[in-house]
Every structure is written in C-alpha cells, then in structure tokens.
Amino acid sequence: MYSFLKDKSVLFVEDEIEVLKNISEFLRHFFKKVYIAPNGELAYQIFQENHIDAVLVDIELPKMNGIELIRKIRKVDNKVSVIIISAYTKTDYLLDSIELNLDKYIVKPLTSKKINILLEKLNSVFAHQNTIQLINGVYLNSDKSTIIFDNKEYTLTKKEFEFISILAEKKIITYNEIDMLWGSEIPTQNAIRSFIAKLRKKLPENIIKNRSGVGYFIEGKKR
Amino acid sequence: MKQSKVSSERITTLIIIFPLISLLLYGGLSHIFFFFTQYKESKDKLEKSKQIHLLEEQYNLKESVETLEQFINYYNNKSNDMIKDDVKHIVNTAANIVNNLYDSYKDKIKEDKLKEIIKNALKKIQFERNIGYLFLLNLKGDALIHIDSKIVGTNVLNIRDAKGKYIIREFNKVLKKKGEGFVDYYWYITNKNRKAMYKKISFVKMLKCYDWYIGAGEYLKYMKHIVQQDILKYIKTNSTLSYDYFFILNSKGEILFQPQKHFITDLKPYTSEGIHISNRYISYTKYIPKHDWYISRIEDLKSLDKNLDKKRKEIEEKKTQNIKTNLYLIIISWIVSILLSIYLSTIINRKLRNYENKLNETNEKLIFQSRQALMGELFSMIAHQWRQPINRIASILALLRLRINSKNISYIEIDKKCHAIEDDIEFMSETIDDFRTFYQPKNDAQEVNLKNLIIKSLNFLEGHIRKKNIHIITELEDIEFKLYHNEFLQVMINIIKNAIDALDEYGKIIIRLYKNRDNRVVITVEDNGSGIPKEIISKLFDPYFSTKEDSMGLGLYMTKMIIEKHMKGTITAENRTRGAKFTIIL
How far apart are CA A129 and CA A131, in angstroms? Predict the structure, then answer.
C-alpha cells in the first residue's frame, strides 16, 4: 500500500498536541520519515533544515499561521506537495489555495477515512512525479525507470526503459532503432524476441504490437 | 432608570410651576397696571365730573337767573297793563257813581244842585291804591275838578305837554270817537329843584250828564316803583322757588333783596354781569336796565363739593369694585390654570410612566435579544471548543483502527484510548450544558460563586483566546453574590470579548475579582492593547455604537444596562498607560 510514500519524508504541522501525536504515529506507518511541528515558525525551520517531500499543515497555528507558512515555503520550493488540513472549509481559503498550488484541502476532523484519502492523494502525486502517461492508466517513470499501472510499479532494465522512452515519443520504434539499443553489437532475432517477451510481462497485455518489416508500436496510444 | 424617573418628575413639576410663575407674574403686573390705570381714570373722572359739575352749575345759575329775568320782564309788561287797568278801573268806578247819581237825582234836584253833589262825590272818592288823581272836565276844556286847585275853574283846552302835545284836545278827539280811551303824554315834575320829564298815561270817559268827562292819569315812574315792590314781594313770598341765594342790587351797590341767611360780605363782584367764581362761591349776574337791577344767584361751592363727594364716592366705589373684580378674575384664572396644569402634569406623568414602562419592557426584550445575538457568537465559540475534542477523538480513533488492522495493539492501550475519548466527550457535554443554561431566558437570582462564573465565561471564550494566543491572568477571590448568573455571564463574556477583540496576537488580559474597603464586589478587566480612542470613550456605552463592522453595537450598552438595572452596580471604562481597563462595582 502507498508504495510511493515509503521513501518519502513528510512534515506534519498541528498545534493540538494530542492530535499531533496520534496522527504522526499514524503517518509513520507509511512514510520513511515524519517531521512534526506545533507552530508555523518551527515548521519552517524544519522545512529549511531537512529534505521534505510533503507538508501537511493546519491553517490556525500559533506564531505563524498555515497560509503564511505555505507562502514562505512556496518562495523557496515550488515542487513540494502541500496539503491543508483545517477546520475551515476550503471555500474560506479558496483564492489562497489556488495561488499556493495545493494538492489537497482536507476539512477536520481527521478520521481514518480522510487520512486514507490524504495518503492516496500523496501516493498518486509521488507516483506521477517524473512520469509520462503512455496510454490510459499506464505510466512511465523516467526518474526511477519504472512502469506503473494498476498501482503497481515494474522496474525496467536500461534497454527496456530506452525502448519504452522511444515509444513514448514516437508512434513506432523501427528495427534499426532497436538494434541501436544494443550498441556496437547487433542483436539476434531471438534476442529481440525474448527482450520483447520480458517487457510485455511488465505491461498490460497486448499493448506492444509488431508491424512486420517496420518495428513495434503501442496500441491505443493517441499520437 | 432612577435618573430618568427623577427627571420626569422634575419635568412635571416644571410643567406646573413654570406657567404658574409666569401667570403669577403676569397677573401681578397686570393687576398693578390695572390698579394704576383705575386710579388715574378715577382721578380723571373726578376732575372731569368736577368740571362738568361746575359747568352744569354755571348753566343752572345762568338759567335760574335768566328765568328770574324773564319773570321780571314779564311782570314789567304786565305792569303797564296793570296801570292801564287801574286807571281805567278808577275812571269807570267814578263814572258809574256819577251816572248813578245823575240818574237818581236828575228829576228830583235842580241841575246846579246836582252838579255840586256830583262834584263833591267825586272829590270824596278814595281809592285803595294811591294812583294819580281824578279830574273832571267839560268838552269846552274847563277844568271842573283837579288836584291842582289853581287849575280848577280855568280853561285848559290849550294846555300842551312837555313835547308840545295838546293834551285836552287829544282827550276830546278820543272821546268824540269812542266815548272813552287812553292818552299818554309827557309831563314835567319838579323834584328837589330839578325838572324832569316823565311819561304819564291817562284814561278819559264821557259821562251821561252834560258834556262832562272824567279822567285819571298816572306817571309810569311811580308805577315802576310799585312794580318793583310787587316783584320783590313775589320773590320773597314764592316759596316754590328756591331763591335763597338770589341777590338783587342796584348799580349803586344798594341791596334790594338778599336771602335771609348768608355770609357774603363783599358784594362788589355782583354789580357786573357774567359768571364769577371765587374760592368759595360761584355766581351769575345779570343786569336789568329797566329797573337798574343786578340780579345774581350765588352758590356756595361747598354744596357743590358735597355733590362732588357723592360722585367721588361713587367713582371710588366703582374703582375698588373694578379692582376687586380684576383680582377675583386673576385668582380664578390662577386656580383654573393650577388645576389645568395639575391635570396636564398628571397626564404627562402618566404618559411618561407608560413610556418608561414600555422602555423597560423593550429594554427587557433587548437584553434577551442581545443574549440571543450573543448566542450566535456563543455557537461559534462552542463550535471552536468542540473542534478540539472532535479532532482529538478522530485522531485517536484513526490511530486505533490502524493499530487494530495491523494487529499491533494491547487491550490496555485500547482502554487508555477509550478513556481519552470519554474525557473529551465529557468536556463536550459540559460545554453544551453551559450553552443550554445560558440560553434559558430567565432564571431566579441566586447566590453564586463569581469566581466560577468568571472562569466559565473564560471557558466560553476559549476558542477566541486560543485563536489569538491571548494570555489570560486571573486574580480571583472566592466571592458569593446574589444575581442572575446568566446575565453575569453575559456581562463578563461581553467585556472579556471586547478586550480580546481589542488585542492583537499574544496580548494580555488581567482579570481581578475582589472586595473593596466598602465591602463591595469589584471586577476589573484590563488589557494591554492600544486603549480606547479618545473620541469614542464617551460613546462607548451608547446603544448601536460600534467600531466593528459585524456588530450591532448593543454589547456594551446591554452590559451597562444589566449592571445598572439588574445588579444595581456601575461600570466604568478608562485608559491606562497601556491598554484599557473596565471596572465593575456591585
């Protein structure tokens, strides 16, 4: 579950200590690292000193409120995922939430259901970081050279990744281009077939098709 | 409230007193004015009536004098006729005697003898009034009988009067025409060696016998004297005329007539015509040239004054009557206006009282409404307060579920978590109870611990306090006090909330509760904000006054009203060196 969270660190900012304690414990089950802060100032300090992938922040905070905190963070980091968890409804901070490039706005109280929605959202955000959609529901993560579909991630070999990357850009990959994957040596027909067979196992069935004499293409790809 | 009652009473007394004073002033002044005008008027009237009276008197005097004059003139005219009548009477009587004698004796006695008898008889005839004398003449002009013996036996046919008239011939003419008649002529009378001409009137009548006629004559001058005597006699005897004050003087100043009693010593003024007014007398004098008379009527001014006194009394009486009437009218109008203003003031009083009652009712309603308005705020306060435990409960439950799902939990831990949840639910329940009791419109005044109530009000405001991170410092003594605890809560919430609103984040509020030296309860709420702006400090407790956009401006007004009306206390606001301070004294 939430595989994309496992190597991520999260900062949880909440002034109610009991809630901070309980929810941070909950989060620790899914994240690599959970940072906590009871006020805005401390939160910003932690954010600056550590690598943070996501910030979960309440609006009503002592010393520096949530909106101010996010604004400050956004000045230095436009990529970090930010989710507001507040007693206020989203409409109260609608304009801010657009400007602040939020990923989610969750209204308190934080029940398990809401926490799961939050985690799912973060998971999907991380999943789609550096990914290209090949076809509907099938993504290529160029960062990690993985294929993601049905919430599963398949690690590609160097040759497989290059093969898919070419297909992501072009309609069809020619035999010449496939040959070039092997560098100076020229692959045999069998070698190519076994390569394609292995790759097909990491992809939904029958999406890689052969056009005889030309090369391979992905079915259903728009372009 | 007390103040307004006092002022309304003052208004009603003013309503009574003000018009009364003005009426009193007006009435008094107008009466004084009226008094003086009456005084002057009566004086004028008196003066005028005096003058009128004097004029009247003058007129009366003149009239009565003129009446007398007329009477005298009348008597004068009449006296001429009287003389003629007298003379004629004498002659007729004598003629009758002669005729009778002649008739009786003409056949019996010789003519000469009869003539002698007749002559003697005539000589003997005496008259009651001594006027003139009888004379007997024949038509030839021979004087047969005459008072002047020198004339008897002479012929007087050619005698002429002072003006040259042939008197006897005139007689003959008259006799030949009518057998009798009057002839007048002028004759000289020597008196004290002075010869004067006087008018004389004679009557002649033919006798039956011979050619004789008899006559008699009289000087009018002598008659005048008689007439004067007659007039004076008449005046004296005529009692119907009040001639007491008539004087008759001649030009020499001799008194011909004067009243029986008089005190007039100086008669000089009464020998000239016209009106004379002296200090004591008023008179009118008229000259009658025929008699050389000065007729005067003199009136004593004292009697005039008597009349005037009467008049004065009348005027005086009328004046006092008028003044009295005026005074009565003023008093009546006073009484009426007093009654009216009392009536009016009672009406106004009643109206004011009604208005006050209504105002009280509205205030009562307003208090309730303001509490309901506060309810809206309370609701959000409670929502704030509930958010915390709800969030807590939610987070506990979320963690519980996670641990249960991963089968990584002990029963001890579950019990601990449940306990925490129960605590939160307990807190929520308490909050809602507070809310509900506060919502109840009226509860009885009861002994309550003010410290607890202040803490409760702080609990209500917990959300606001937390949101702004306000630091609350309390120095509260345990004080029991009898009051409506909801209203006290309302007051405390209003004041503390006011302080919170005035503060920025991390502000400080100090709340103290203690008893002062007079054993009165004092509650102070002090903040370290920017204080109350000078321009609004006087309007702070006015209704519908607010510096906040979303406020009706009833909060502090209601607070003041509740404290003053229901708790009989006071609330004051002042600026400290840093921040504002509200002080409630109960």
Answer: 6
